[in-house]
Structure formats: structure tokens, C-alpha cells
Design a protein that fits this description.
The structure holds two protein chains of two kinds.
Chain A (H helix, E strand, L loop, with lengths): L8 H4 L4 E8 L10 E8 L6 H11 L19 E4 L2 E4 L11 E5 L6 E3 L2 E2 L1 H11 L21 H11 L6 H4 L2 H5 L5 H13 L7 H8 L13 H5 L6 H18 L3
Parallel strand pairs in A: 1-5
Antiparallel strand pairs in A: 1-2, 3-4, 3-5, 6-7
Helix pairs in contact in A: 4-7, 7-10, 8-10
Chain B lengths: L2 E9 L3 H12 L4 E5 L15 E2 L13 H11 L6 H20 L10 E7 L2 E7 L20 E2 L5 H15 L4 E3 L1 E9 L2 E9 L5 E11 L20 H7 L6 E2 L4 E8 L9 H4 L3 E3 L7 H4 L9 H16 L9 E4 L5 H7 L1 H11 L8 E10 L2 E3 L12 E3 L4 E2 L11 H22 L9 H20 L6 H15 L6 H17 L14 H25 L15 E2 H4 L1 E6 L9 E6 L19 E2 L4 H13 L6 H8 L22
Parallel strand pairs in B: 1-2, 1-10, 2-7, 10-17, 16-18, 19-22
Antiparallel strand pairs in B: 3-6, 4-5, 8-9, 9-10, 11-16, 11-20, 12-15, 13-14, 14-15, 20-21
Helix pairs in contact in B: 1-4, 1-11, 2-3, 3-11, 5-15, 9-10, 13-14, 13-15, 14-15
The chains are: A alpha+beta, B alpha/beta.
The structure holds flavin-adenine dinucleotide.
Chain lengths: 256, 659
């Protein structure tokens, strides 16, 4: 058991001067053109990209746009390309990166400006399209005992529920690059989660209507990009493969 | 001039705002939700530990009911709460959790049979009954007599907000994201909606509504280090303050959570201690039993935070580059438990500290966490002074938490108050507030005023920097309006904040863009935040007693004789540099649970002159009602059921109390 603070690079080494290249573009401003801009920041102990970007905005360029909310890896606001790879900026320690860092907005989503993209709008659209909520016609009597659920089942549902809709999976997805309408691992995982849940009374035939095409489960090319980058380590490929089998079955049995 | 009309405008897309929106929609009203961020990214998503509701399903919660939840909450509040509101709340919480269960929250469930658990650093065996199998389970949290905190691993807020977010979509309720309310539209004592700025384009729109609800969360970010999301800046509460008509309640009541990690201030849930974790000092000694032999690490939050600070002041903190800290030790809980029930904590430790809490101790210290204060409302959620303005959730003070909130009571409050307040809003729209009675002249006036304010900021040449103002404010609050407070420091704080407020009227921006402009946003927010900070500091300065989370070293006693009252703050003119502070008595004569000893440290408070008589009256009343009928006993002491919307009246079924 250790009772010491973890060693950080600054304990031993000289302070690094980070060279952070940010892809900048403000679509609201007709004069703006996409370009890389260099900011230099002295690295501090336990510095995250959240700290570094705020430092840049506070002390160098107050117009820099980016999104952080919880800054604890929970809310999914701050996904961006970190040296080309989708990830959550708030929980990325600069110490795990080289001195030269490149930051770009997440592709696939509508750009708001600089590192800020409109994932919220896309996620809402996806939820509407997939009717991604519990469909139940049971009467609720709130005064009565709740419906029982097997403890393991509740855990399995929670496991899939842990998705934070950050958009990393779509940014890393080959299909999404070609099909703007693709619902992505985030959408397919959500349907897998609802399907597992006895409170959602829909059948596989109903789900087939929603994801039984190339914008849904048959669009996935199993390139594993989504799973590689998922910040919550969700087992997305297993879920997608499972859903594909179930949807094929649904298609066969309904005589499609 | 862009104007949008709706029945109900809800400002805030967290748990409280969404539940309100769903409720009024179910009553057939038109509703719009505004949010700074996508609703599912609201701060509510970060709640880890759980939601209190007295289901009493699990063995360690057996025998729990509304009465015990009521008593814990009132004691926790240090008798600052409105006891009728507490009763409304505890009676609705089981209904709220059952509704959320039906909407898809995968609450962790009771599993029949025996399992090992850690209580008070010792392994014990807990046996769950057969007939409880599959019902919603609960964990232990501070300040509660029973294990009452229901949870989904440590992602409770996430699962609740996603279920509610999905319901919002299912009900077809528009959530307008990246929209910031800048001011309320109001005339005389009537609120008519809000002026709203689009954070992407900078465009201003007036939203005119029969009822306006503020559900914008807390104001933690006026402090330098806070567990809150960075958008919890209290600017929604400032909307009400700036009307000069609505009042804010108990703004000085600010809670510090015992265990946030250094330096980022990210929370490790109370579930860590609830599940058996302990606090240790520089010598590895478990010190809480020395101070609080009975409750130890699970004393009320304000108490644990003070004890930790006290212990560090004695030189028992662990020195580090970032100042002193203590250790949270959850190694005794075992890998399996941590990886399943405290996974978020493990992630946070790995990502932000580079340690594994299964094997290593976590460096923690008390950090700003929760805002008990907020927009003063009555039990219906409506401002008593500004009609048509409602508020619920952390931004409101209706007043459930008094001077200290119990862990797990906040997410419960968000949904419970959303359910209840939605009914009252709908009633209001159907009756007195029914007609929209606002002229376009007034709308134009407010839009022009906000436009001029923004232009003044964009053109300002006074030379003051937003970043400098903000950093100074955060430091003043942290150093002088923190866990331990003194008159001298608070006086200095008020002066310094006033100075900052004056300077905030002379800001010069470096970015002049009228559209997306983070610096402009920071500028108008810091002006609002300084007013909120002044309400907190001034309220704390004037309150010469200690109650709940408000602790005055120069007045360490709770003083019911002089201070059993709620602080009310108003900001009369925009050019003022201090809020006006008034008080509202909390009457002892109709309390179900008259003020008493809270059970921490030694008994040390000044009684209210009415307390003795009320205690005698309660005893006498109870002597006449049979012990077995807890409902009749409660009813004899204080009526609350008639205050609840009809829909939510009635008893809650339990395994041991079948309907
Ligand atoms: C780390 C952490 C863990 C916690 N864990 C627990 C727990 O385990 N149990 C518990 O009971 N409580 C917990 N709490 C407390 C609890 O999470 C909050 O009190 C609660 O979620 C607040 O919900 P809300 O709906 O009132 O506000 P929020 O969730 O903060 O939502 C506020 C909303 O208002 C919007 N908004 C704000 N200002 C404006 C504006 N001017 N214009 C437009 N929109 C605006 C925001 O975009 C957001 O949508 C925790 C808190 C923290 C910090």
C-alpha cells in the first residue's frame, strides 16, 4: 500500500513547454478560414487538456471555443481529436502526450467553432429517429411496490447504459464517414440496451423497423474503430454483432 | 424583434427542469426547455452516489419509512428546513423512484441470501430476505438512520438524467440547447418570461410565457475549488435577484463535501464511506472516531468536513505541493466491490491521479459542493413576491435542506420538486396566470436593455480584465467565506467583493465579436456571479450564529433564540453594491419536530423561547394517539397532505406495509 502522492513528470524533470496546435475555424465569421494555430503553454503538475485549454483562453486568446461541463469524464461534452484520435480532453493528462500536441474538432458533427461541435443536436435527432425510450403501455401506480428485476439483469442494463453520448464512436467510424444517416455505435448500443430491458415492450420486429437497414445495424463494417476509442470501454462490437444476429432472425421470421 | 410564445418556459435542462417539463406537458400545456448545454450533459449527470427514498427493501433499511426520513432530513438541516416541505418530500420520494424505475432507470436490486459487506471498517454478513429479492436496494449515506440511498452502481445521476432525457424526447418537448437566459421579463409583481441569448449566434429572443420556471442548479463556481460542473455559476438564480422583486433564501448556506480529490476538486462519492471506506491522517490513523465516536465517517457532511479541517489545523494533514490533504482509504472494500459499485471513482483516480484505489489511498480534502440557498419559493415552487415565477431543484429554496443537505436528498429533491411544482404550475396556468397580459412595448424595452448591456460590454474601455475579476472573486470566497468563518474575514470579503463588483462595471474585452464569444459570456456572467457572491458573504456576515454548514468561529453556538429564521436577500437597484437582507421567522409553534440536539459533538445551543412549550405540546398530543398508528400520530402533529397535489397524496407500499 502506498501512502505517497503519485509521481508526476514535474517532480523530476524540468518543466516542459507544450506546443499546442489547435485547428481553428469560426463558420459564423465570413472572414475566417480553417487554419492551425500554435499556442505555447508551460506544463504544470497534473495538467489536463481542460486546464491547458482554459489557460490558453484566459491568458492568450479569449476567443478560443471549446466545450467542457463536468471536467471529470462523465458528461461527454469535450470529445475532440487529440493528436488525431477521438478522446475526452478533460481527462487527458498532458503528461501522457508529447511536447507537441494537435487538437482538432470531432469530425462528422456540425462544427460550431474551433473545437466545439454540435453533438447534442445529432444525439437528439438520433433518439427521435430510433424512438430511443422505454415503450410501455402498463399502468403506473406509484403507490405500489415497484416491478421486480433480477439484480444481474439490472447490472447488465447499467453496463450498456453507461454510454455518455460523447460522439467518439462516430468520429472513429468508417461507415459514418460515408453515410451521414448512420446511427453509429451509440444508436445501436442504445437499442441493445432497450432490447435487454423487459420494461420496453417492443419486439424484435419493432426494432427491425428502426435499425434493420444500412443506416442501422447492417451498415457496420466491423472495423472496431468505435470500440477502440470508447472512453467508457463499452463492448460495442459484441453488442452490434449480437444485434445483427437478432435483426437477421427478425427479418427471416417476419418473412422479409 | 424575435418573440416566441409558450405556456411554460423552463430554464434549465437538468433533472429538476426536465421533470417539471414532462409534468406540465402531461397536463396538456405547451412547454419549452432552455439549456446552456445539451440536457443530458447538465450537472445532474455527475451525481454518483444515489437518491434517498424510504423503500425499506434491503435488510439494512428494514423498518425505514417516511417518518425516519423526515427526522433525518430535519436534523440534517439543523432545523432550518420548512418541515411541511420535508413531509411533502419524504412522502413523494418513493413515488418518484418508482416512476423512474418504470421509465427505465436500472436501479441496483436486492439479491436474496447472504453477502459480505464492510461496516465501520469491519467485515459483516448481511442476509437479504427472499421476499425482497429483485426490489430496489439501498446503500448507507451520511446522517441517515437507515440504509436509504438507492443507486445504480455509482452512476445514479447519469441513469436518472438519461431516463428523464428520454422521456422528454418521448413527450416531444423541445429542448433548446446552447441558449442562455439573460434576464426575466417582468412588470410589477408578475413575471412574463425571459430574454435569451443564443450562445452560437449571439441572437437575442424574448420568450413570453404564462409561467416561467428557473431550474438552473447551484452556484458552486463562485468558489475557486468546487466539485460542481463548470457551468454551475448561479447565473440562473441571479436572474431572479436582478428583478429586484423576487427574493433569494439562505444564500450563506453552502455545503462542503468531505472527499474531493486534490487538486482538480473532482468528487469521490459519499458512497465510498457509505460502503465502508475510512478517513486517515498523515500517520495513517483513522481519526473520525476520535471526534464523532458514534457516527464516525458517516456523520453529516458539514460535520465531517469541519472535523477534517480541524484535524488538518492540528498539523495532522498530509503535506503536498498543493497544500494539506487527508486520505480516503477504500482498500478494505475489495477489488470486486470497487470495480462494480465504485467504478466511476476508480476511473477518476486512475485518470486524474494515476493511482489505483483498490490498493492505494486517495488524497482528498473538503471542497465546495452544494448550494442550499436559492430562489425563495413557497411549497408550490412559486416566488411569493413575483407571481408567475417558479423554481425547483438546486436553484430553489422551498426549503427542504435548511442549513445542510443530506447526501442523496438532492437528486431526490430535483425529481420530487419537479413532479410537485409541475402540478402547481399547470394549476396556475389554468387559473390566475391563464391570460398572457404583456404588451409588445414591454418586451421591446427588455430586449433593448439587454442589447444595450451587451453593447456596453463589447465597447467597454475601462480596462478591467474578466479573468482577473473572476479569479479574485473565487479566491475571496474560498479564503474568507469557506468552512470556518469569522466576522473579521467576512467583513473583508464583503468589501473586496464590492470592490470587484465596481470594477466589473468597467470591463474591457479583447474579443469584440457579437456572436460566439466566450469572453463576452464570461464578462456578463461574472457581473451576475459577484452579486450572488455578495449575497452569500453578506448573509454569512450578518448571521452571528452557527447552523448546519454555516459555521462562525466567533459564534460557535446554534442560537435558536435569535436566529431560527431564514435569510432573504433582494437586490433593489442595479447600481446597488450590496443586497438588502431581511429575515423570515421559522415558527417553532407548528413544528412536528421541535428544535433539539442534533447529535454531534456536545450539546451546545441556545433554545428558542417557544421550544419548551412546543415540546410539551407534542408530547401531550402523542400521548393521546395510539403508538401503533404512525400515520395518525403524524397527522395529529402537523398537516401536510392537503398541501400536496392530489395526484401525489396517499401512502407508499412497503413489504411490511401492504396497501
Ligand atoms: C459531483 C457531484 C456528485 C453529486 N452526487 C449526488 C448524489 O449522489 N446524490 C444526490 O442526491 N445529489 C448529488 N449531487 C447533487 C445533485 O447532483 C445536484 O444538486 C442536482 O443534480 C441539481 O440538479 P438541477 O436539475 O437542480 O440542476 P443542474 O443539473 O445543475 O441543471 C441546471 C440546468 O440549468 C441550465 N442553465 C443554467 N443556467 C442557465 C441559463 N442562464 N439559461 C439557460 N439554462 C441555464 C444548465 O444548462 C442545466 O441544464 C452531486 C453533485 C455533485 C457536484
Amino acid at each position: 500500500m502506498s501512502t505517497r502522492m503519485p509521481a508526476s513528470p514535474a517532480d523530476t524533470a524540468v518543466v516542459r513547454r507544450l506546443k499546442i496546435h489547435v485547428l481553428r475555424y469560426n463558420p459564423q465569421d465570413p472572414a475566417s478560414k480553417p487554419h492551425l494555430e500554435l499556442f505555447e503553454v508551460d506544463e504544470a503538475p497534473s495538467m489536463t487538456l481542460f486546464v491547458a485549454l482554459n489557460d490558453i483562453r484566459d491568458r492568450q486568446d479569449p476567443s478560443l471555443q471549446f466545450d467542457f461541463v463536468c471536467r471529470a469524464g462523465i458528461c461527454g461534452s469535450c470529445a475532440m481529436l487529440i493528436n488525431g484520435r477521438p478522446g475526452l480532453a478533460c481527462r487527458t493528462l498532458t503528461s501522457v502526450l508529447g511536447e507537441r500536441i494537435t487538437l482538432a474538432p470531432l469530425p462528422f458533427f456540425e462544427l460550431i467553432g474551433d473545437l466545439s461541435v454540435n453533438t447534442g443536436k445529432w444525439m437528439r435527432g438520433m433518439s427521435e429517429r430510433l424512438e430511443a425510450w422505454i415503450h410501455s403501455s402498463s399502468e403506473m401506480d406509484l403507490r405500489r411496490l415497484e416491478e421486480r428485476m433480477e439484480p444481474e439483469l439490472a447490472e447488465q442494463i447499467y453496463e450498456l447504459e453507461r454510454c455518455i453520448e460523447c460522439g467518439c464512436c462516430l468520429a472513429a467510424c468508417g461507415t459514418a464517414r460515408m453515410r451521414q444517416e448512420f446511427v453509429g455505435a451509440v444508436g445501436l448500443n442504445k437499442i441493445a440496451r432497450l432490447r435487454l430491458d423487459p420494461r420496453d415492450q417492443r419486439t424484435d420486429a419493432d426494432y427491425y423497423e428502426l435499425i434493420g437497414d444500412d443506416d442501422g445495424v447492417f451498415g457496420c463494417m466491423s472495423l472496431l474503430g468505435c470500440q477502440d476509442v470508447c472512453p467508457k470501454d463499452l463492448d460495442l462490437q459484441t453488442q452490434i454483432a449480437y444485434m445483427r444476429r437478432k435483426m437477421l432472425r427478425a427479418a427471416v421470421f417476419s418473412g422479409r | 424583434m424575435k418573440v416566441v410564445y409558450t405556456d411554460v418556459l423552463v430554464i434549465g435542462g437538468g433533472l429538476a427542469g426536465l421533470r417539471t417539463a414532462v409534468g406540465v406537458r402531461q397536463r396538456g400545456l405547451d412547454v419549452l426547455v432552455l439549456s446552456l448545454v445539451p440536457a443530458k450533459r447538465s450537472h445532474s449527470v455527475a451525481a454518483q452516489g444515489g437518491m434517498q427514498a424510504s423503500l425499506g427493501n434491503s435488510a439494512m433499511g428494514a423498518g425505514d419509512n417516511e417518518d425516519i426520513h423526515f427526522e433525518d432530513t430535519v436534523r440534517g438541516s439543523d432545523w432550518g428546513a420548512d418541515q411541511r416541505v420535508v413531509r411533502m418530500f419524504v412522502n413523494t420520494a418513493p413515488k418518484a423512484i418508482r416512476e423512474l424505475a418504470a421509465w427505465g432507470v436500472p436501479w441496483s436490486r436486492v439479491a436474496r441470501g447472504s453477502r459480505e459487506s464492510v461496516v465501520n471498517a469491519e467485515k459483516i454478513t448481511i442476509s437479504e430476505a427472499d421476499d425482497a429479492h429483485g426490489l430496489i436496494t439501498a446503500r448507507d449515506f451520511g446522517g441517515t438512520k437507515k440504509w436509504r440511498t438507492c443507486y445504480t452502481s455509482d452512476g445514479t445521476g447519469h441513469t436518472m438524467l438519461y431516463a428523464l432525457g428520454d422521456q422528454t424526447i418521448a413527450h416531444g418537448i423541445p429542448v433548446l440547447e446552447r441558449q442562455e437566459a439573460l434576464a426575466l421579463l417582468h412588470e410589477g409583481n408578475r413575471c412574463h418570461g425571459a430574454v435569451v441569448r443564443d450562445l452560437i449566434t449571439g441572437e437575442l429572443t424574448a420568450y413570453v410565457a404564462k409561467a416561467t420556471t428557473i431550474a438552473t442548479g447551484g452556484y458552486g463556481r463562485i468558489y475557486k475549488v468546487s466539485t460542481n460542473a463548470i457551468i454551475c455559476e448561479g447565473t440562473g438564480i441571479a436572474l431572479a435577484l436582478e428583478t429586484g422583486v423576487a427574493t433569494l433564501g439562505n444564500m450563506e448556506a453552502v455545503q462542503f463535501h468531505p472527499t474531493a480529490i486534490i487538486t482538480a476538486g473532482i468528487l469521490t462519492t459519499e458512497g465510498c464511506r457509505g460502503d465502508g471506506g475510512v478517513l486517515r491522517d498523515v500517520d495513517g490513523h483513522r481519526f473520525m472516531p476520535d471526534y464523532e465516536p458514534e457516527k464516525k465517517e458517516l456523520a453529516s457532511r458539514d460535520v465531517v468536513s469541519r472535523r477534517m479541517t480541524e484535524h488538518m489545523r492540528k498539523g495532522k494533514g498530509v503535506p503536498s505541493r498543493y497544500g494539506d490533504h487527508l486520505w480516503l482509504d477504500i482498500t478494505g472494500l475489495g477489488r470486486a466491490h470497487i470495480e462494480k459499485n465504485l467504478r466511476e471513482v476508480k476511473d477518476i483516480c486512475e485518470y486524474f491521479l494515476g493511482i489505483n484505489p483498490v490498493e492505494q489511498w486517495i488524497p482528498v480534502r473538503p471542497t465546495q459542493h452544494y448550494s442550499m440557498g436559492g430562489i425563495r419559493t413557497d411549497h408550490t415552487g412559486q416566488s411569493p413576491t413575483l407571481k408567475g415565477l417558479f423554481s425547483c431543484g438546486e436553484s430553489a429554496c422551498w426549503d427542504l435542506h435548511g442549513f445542510n443537505r443530506l447526501g442523496g436528498n438532492s437528486v431526490a429533491e430535483t425529481v420530487v420538486s419537479g413532479m410537485i411544482v409541475a402540478e402547481f404550475i399547470a394549476d396556475y396556468c389554468e387559473t390566475e396566470g391563464g391570460e398572457l397580459s404583456i404588451g409588445t412595448g414591454l418586451v421591446r424595452e427588455f430586449l433593448d436593455r439587454e442589447r444595450q448591456r451587451l453593447d456596453a460590454l463589447l465597447l467597454g474601455t475601462g480596462g478591467e480584465s474578466v479573468t482577473a475579476l473572476r479569479e479574485s472573486m473565487e479566491t475571496v470566497m474560498m479564503d474568507k467565506v469557506g468552512i470556518f468563518r469569522t466576522g473579521e474575514e467576512l467583513e473583508a470579503a464583503v468589501q473586496e467583493l464590492q470592490d470587484l463588483l465596481h470594477r466589473s462595471r468597467n470591463i474591457t474585452l479583447r474579443t469584440k465579436a457579437p456572436g460566439a464569444n466566450p469572453e463576452l459570456v464570461a464578462a456578463y456572467r461574472v457581473q451576475k456571479m459577484l452579486k450572488i457572491a455578495l449575497c452569500v458573504a453578506q448573509g454569512a456576515l450578518l448571521r452571528t450564529e452557527s447552523r448546519g454548514a454555516h459555521f462562525r468561529e466567533d459564534y460557535p453556538q446554534r442560537n435558536d433564540r435569535d436566529w431560527l429564521k431564514r435569510t432573504l436577500a433582494t437586490w433593489e437597484n442595479d447600481s446597488d453594491d450590496l443586497p438588502s437582507i431581511h429575515y423570515e421567522e421559522i415558527p417553532v409553534t407548528d413544528m412536528e419536530l421541535p428544535p433539539g440536539f442534533r447529535g454531534y459533538g456536545t450539546r451546545n445551543h441556545v433554545d428558542h423561547p417557544d421550544t419548551e412549550a412546543r415540546v410539551a405540546e407534542v408530547e401531550k398530543t402523542l400521548a393521546e394517539v395510539p403508538e401503533a398508528d404512525r400515520f395518525a400520530r403524524q397527522q395529529a402533529l402537523m398537516d401536510y397532505e392537503s398541501l400536496l397535489p392530489e395526484k401525489y397524496r396517499g401512502r407508499n407500499e412497503r413489504l411490511t406495509e401492504r396497501l
